[in-house]
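PT: before anyone asks, these are the final sequences, not the draft ones from last week. 237 residues across everything. Please model them as a single complex and drop the result in this thread when it's through.
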Amino acid sequence: MEKSLNSSISQAALEERLKRVREAVSEAAVGAGRQPEAVRIMAVTKYVEAGTICRALDAGVDLIGENREQSLSGKYHAIARDDVDIHFIGRLQTNKAARVVRMVSTVQSLDSLRLAAELDRQAAAYQKRLDVLVEVNIGHDPGKAGVDPDEAAAFVEQLRGYPALCVRGLMAVLPLGDSEAVNEGYFSRMNALYVDIQAKNGDNVNVDCLSMGMSGDYVQAVRQGSTLVRLGTALFG
Ligand SMILES: *Cc1c(COP(=O)(O)O)cnc(C)c1O
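LR: through. Structure below.
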């Protein structure tokens, strides 16, 4: 099931790719009148082994995303360092929440109150504040996770009832295969939702993260306001 990408990629090659990605992000940000530093670059490591992840960290990566609990658990001890931030970005079953809460700063894929309740319970038990992003199904794709865009703001309101969680923003995965023009509409709608939700700041809502853009479309996402791009193949493929 898991395909394995380029497990032998060198640190020098990773430095080169990271440099190219940073340049593309910078150019897109500046072109849109934004600060390049306002965009974080996440290395999505679901298809790569711990050894490669360690080389990526040595190459300058400081933010890692994993989408399965098992995959993360298997690599965690090799990759956990004080200077690396780890986020969970995949579908999360409530029975895996306890383990994930111990390993990550942020769950980007929150889309149900049932999961919110369990994450809150586990974070409280572990005496930590867990950052969360609300995943939005911006393309109304029946095969994808996420709350309906029209319900995102109300969902954020409901998350005020979970004090061990801190709502930091929104995340989206676009449907596959749409045109650039259609994707631009999705990204700009996400940015509008993000701005709306920032107006709710207070209590445990402290919104500063809009996670959108993957290897195929991150430049466009940055132009439309992304503050965090999630890159797998652009770094490791
Ligand atoms: C795999 C994955 C990515 C990275 O995809 P690439 O196209 O390889 O950059 C980003 N976000 C999520 C949620 C993923 O599962």
